[in-house]
Amino acid sequence: MNDSQDEVKALHLELERLTQRQTEIQRAIEARSQENARLERVLEDLRGGLRRRRLWPYLLLAVVVAAAIGGGLWWYRGSDAPMQLRVVRQRLDPHLLVTSVPDGAEVFVAGRPVGRSPLLHRLPPERGSVRVELRLAGHRPFSGSARTSESGGAHVHAILPPLP
Fold first, then answer.
1. What are the phi and psi torsion angles at 8 (to 5°)?
2. In Å, what is the CA distance from 60 to each residue of 18, 64, 105, 147?
3. pTM value?
4. In this model, does residue 3 exceed pLDDT 90?
5. CATH code for 56-159?
6. Which of 9, 105, 114, 121 is least surrounded, with the fewest CB atoms within 10 Å of its CB?
């Protein structure tokens, strides 16, 4: 009878050890789930930041134009020139805004590497179309052309699907 009691005690001890291990595993799974949820929130925040980041070239242009207008008004008010209205139209250098999904693609303009997307690139003063290529490892390349508008700007947005 002693042997069977020893076996029962051993089985009870093994059951307690397995129950404790199960509790530890459940806690670890819960901690991983919480960490995954936190990482998902961080990833979503980063994606939102990337969407906002694509607006920075336009915001920078707006700040530069506002500063130029403000500086011109300040200078004009300080001069003794007679009051008269002058309209000056300044042509901006043409520029090319290149965005892609996913970001980080190498950008080629007229066959020359100019940087990685997203990218704001200054074009030569002559108006017309320019050849644009985007390449990213593991994705299909993009090739197309962009024509500058009257405002001097062009935008290329490329979606680079992954290679099979």
1. -65, -45
2. 62, 6, 23, 22
3. 0.45
4. no
5. 2.60.40
6. 9
